[in-house]
Specification:
About 25% of the residues lie in helices and about 30% in strands. It is of the alpha+beta class. Strand 10 and strand 11 form a beta hairpin.
């Protein structure tokens, strides 16, 4: 049997198995790196195991791989990956609901709406009770309007708003847009900290939610921590592969297991690709 070729390169056994992988699986994204950085590291590890070098020329890219739904650098949790023909499934399968656990801090606001930013405002919060917070959450459940953060992956003239902001460019806030919150509950309240569980649809920003909750309580608030615990059918505990499991064999096993999760998932319109040469869902849910 003739050895398989990819991009004009004769493949060994490991490489042949790598390029035969197709479908969706999930990895764990730690705090620190960007989602694109995690994807690139995963790709580098797989190509290195297969005895191949990363091809930086996108037009000649031979390994099709992409992620569905960006997580902020400071956030952690489930990052869904499509490989092979799975890259074409990211938009249709994973533009649905996601679950997050978020920790908010009352009394402080930052320019990024999270702990990575500069403090822009401080207000008292001693008057706020657990009941006050629980009552406010009801206003943010269901179909609501939300203004996205200025520091975000949304784009203006082809550049991310966050990139423009860091360069000191004047950026106008995007208009409020409709988003959906399936469930929102208070898990802990130890002032100034509070912990939320959120299940939401695509395009939702948990950072904006925490900020808006602070304003509704006549104070201010910023997000301290964010963990995506579920994306579509993929959960953090059951399906997200940590870096020590980023091998061809482990991913092959995960793909086989995860295939059974996908039938019955609602179909959604395919969204814009985030990275040239890769298919990814443009869901800026952070």
């Amino acid at each position: 049997m003739a050895a398989r070729e990819a991009g004009g390169v004769v493949l060994g056994r490991a490489a042949e198995k790598l390029f035969s992988l197709s479908g969706l699986f999930a990895v764990y994204k730690p705090k620190g790196p960007t989602s694109a950085g995690v994807l690139n590291l995963l790709k580098e590890k797989l190509l290195a195991e297969a005895g191949m070098q990363t091809n930086t020329n996108k037009r000649n890219q031979v390994l099709k791989i992409g992620h569905g739904g960006t997580l902020d650098s400071a956030a952690e949790g489930v990052l869904v990956i499509g490989i092979g023909k799975g890259t074409k499934m990211l938009g249709s399968m994973l533009a649905g609901s996601k679950k997050y656990t978020a920790i908010g801090l009352l009394g402080k606001a930052t320019d990024t709406l999270d702990a990575t930013g500069q403090v822009t405002e401080e207000k008292p919060y001693d008057q706020i009770t657990k009941g006050d917070l629980e009552n406010v959450l009801q206003k943010f459940t269901g179909d609501i309007m939300q203004v996205p953060p200025l520091y975000s992956a949304l784009k203006k003239d082809g550049e991310r708003l966050s990139t423009l902001m860091k360069r000191g460019k004047a950026v106008e806030a995007k208009p409020a847009r409709p988003v959906r919150v399936y469930s929102l509950s208070l898990q802990q309240f130890q002032p100034p900290l509070f912990k939320l569980d959120v299940e939401c649809g695509g395009g939702f920003y948990v950072r904006s939610l925490v900020s808006d909750i602070g304003k509704e309580l006549s104070t201010c608030a910023t997000m301290q921590e964010l963990t995506r615990t579920k994306h579509g059918p993929f959960t953090l505990e059951e399906h997200a592969l940590h870096e020590d499991k980023w091998t061809i064999d482990e991913i092959a096993r995960s793909l086989e297991y995860c295939t059974s999760l996908l039938p019955g998932e609602p179909s959604h319109k395919k969204l814009k690709t985030e990275h040239p040469g890769e298919t990814a869902v443009s869901c800026e849910d952070k």
